[in-house]
Fold:
Amino acid sequence: MREPYLSWPEAAWLIMQYTICANYLFMPQLLYSMSGRLSWAMPIIAMLPAAAGVWATYYLHTRFPQERLGQFLPRLIGRPLSIVVGGAFILFWLGGAVTNVTVFAHYVSDTAMQSTPVTALVAASALIIVLVSLSGLKTLVRVTDALLYLLAPFLLFALFWPFFGSRIDFSNLAPIRLSDLTADKWRLAGAAAAMYHGYQLIFIAGPALNPPGRSALAAGIAGTLAAVTAFLSFVAMPILAFGWPYANLLTYPAASFLEVVAPRTGLFPIRRFDFALTVLYRNIMIVAAMSYFYSAAQTVTDLVSPSARRIHPWFVIGLGIAMVVSSAAFKGIRAVMQFTGVWILLGALTTTLTLILAIVARFRASVSGVR
Amino acid sequence: MRRPIKITRRQALVETGTPEALDPREDTTAPHPLKLDAYARFDDVEEQVSLISTALGSPSDLAVRRISDGIVCLFLSPLVDQGAVRHSLVEPLSRAGWLELQEKGEAARVLPAAGLSEARSIEAAVDKVAEGEAALIVHGRPTPYTLDLRGRVGRQVSPPISEPSVRGPRDSFTENLFDNLSLVRQRIRSRDLRVRELTVGLDTRTRVAVCYLEGRSSPEVVDAVIQRLSAVTAAAVIDSSYLVPYLSKRTWSLFPPAAATERADRACAAIVQGRIVVICDNSPFALVIPIHLVTLFQANEDHYNLAIHSFLLRSVRVIGWLAATLAPALYIGIASFNPGILPAHAVMTIASARQGVPYPPVIEVLIMDIALEMLAEATVRLPTYVGGAATVVGGLILGTAAAQAKLVSNVMIIVVALTAIGSFAIPDYQNQLSWRTVRYLFTFSAAILGIFGVSTAGLIILTHTCSIDVLGESFMSPIAPWRWTSMAKDVPMRVPEPLAVRLTQRQREEEAEGTADA
Structure:
């Protein structure tokens, strides 16, 4: 019997951070390139596929409350298919860890640490990720819990402070042209499907939920809704502050926005307040990267060796090194952004797979997760 | 003249013919003064005296009192109360003969105040004498009686040295286990108070008392503590700190799994809260287990002051802790990597102060940090009346001279002073040491990656603290996992008592329902 140590509010908080990850650095730019000024509507539209994803994950969890993705897949769809489907999830999660860490390292290297190589910054983040993964999911959950007291006030500040400034101009959101959304509709649909994927964490943390069942649904809904607010802010705020098309010219629109609206007063002890926010957003990125990385490592272990009690330490260390090496392969932020486009499509694929798995589970009622 | 007896283990085995008497941990070929079968018995008084004396290595402080014909008393003089020997043993026995002492009931009547009991064997009697009891050998009896006439050199109950307080009780634990237990019993008069005594240490045979409140402490945790203490394999347990590594599975943790306290009120408060207190004989420090990080920042004084005042003091402690841990790292990060985060005039001040200093900020920090550590260590070792002078010389004269010689900057002196003051604001000494160690991790991380490095080190430490479990409880509780009731009751501020009682009731209900973590 597994120890149920994860309450639904804790799971929701984890899901929220898993969803936000380093999106504030790359998502606005990606969405602007796909749907122009109306990008700010995307975080709202994406709630539809998210709702389906939350339901599918919840359903799978109720069918297999004591099992992780890598444990129930072989029994649900057979071993060969489980490797293919599980492989897609593993690729998405590993890609997520690499993307987050690399984008963030590039941003920091471009702004605050210009003389520090990107690889060194990636290695520093990889070290933390590996350490947490070696300690296990419980440590990851506790780290995320402990960050609440640090992150929540700053998240609230970042979300609401701009409304007290004079740079916000709501007329920048108009005119609303629906044709913006149809210009690149397939990529946009992919982005919408992939946008809120945090509920996938239930595939790994589900057996630790206390109580199992409805906690998964509550955590999925609350975590996703909390992420909607953050995403809306990341995408809409730069347009509100800089106007269109100027917001689209920036490499990191949301980060630039935070820098511009940071409080400025001679008495304020920190001049670059955006820098403090960057460090705090880094914590969110790390939580997400840790969750992606751990999910991937755990699923590989479950698929390869279902009876293994824990992930082998050398495997975690090896994956950590692979993360740093693959991150070093990206030459410049443009290469990372191109990969991010591919990763988002992979996310859309996993969302679709989640729905298909739930439908398969619905029709294969004989397969039960109770051992 | 008595014939000295030297019995080796082999001889003993031959005599008794019981191989079970062998201790598997010991070398079977080595000569041993005495290792007899537990049930070996001797009828002759002189033979028993000789065997006990030989088993103890015929020490010069072994007193052999021949009280009358057929009655001999043996004890280690330094361990018994000579007055008690005279009043409770010699005087009553001078009026009795050996025949009256044959039956235990009769003997107890003759010696009413001596705490008389019957030794199972000579071997057991030897152990009792080694522990400080007296052995009474009576002609015709196969084994001696043992009498608890222990008296010991000890200090009086005095104010705590390492945990002083402005307000609150002034008594603290001493080196005497019974004195310490009486301090606990005086404060907690509940019938639910349980004291379980163990003997640990193969050589020292130190008595350890595990105190807890039945129904308040988790039975699993109590069992785990007793089990782990019973498994102590150390030859010597000189102080309670020797037991600490046995209470946690993590040997290389930066943080202690148990809090050490010499304050009886703190130990009792912990017992009432459901924690377990381990009191070790010969040690004035009791161990409180399990502990959480937040409790290491709480002082008992918090409960003696008004809630709002306690909140203020706790906030000051947290600021002190942040300064002690982060100030040098932030100085390095700002001066070497990220000066842009401060307002321009502040950066200019730091830059002008550093003008002429030949080292990078990290070397400056290390020089001053090591000087600070030396000063702290020297102050602890020096007698009190010299310690003050050393602090003045170290802190003021050396610091000012170093700044004037441009070996370090003036700003650095401020940073070090902040670090030192902040460090001393942390209440628990072990906690202070832990964070002093962590400070170096922050310093080196800042030297490599600036503020980004400070953030990295912070996450590493957070990961480490979050991964610590002490007897099944998270070290970071109630911060992680979230326990809102505990948080509200006693973390940012200690709520006033009536509200605390209500919250405690709610906390117990939540624990009973298993929803405490939500």
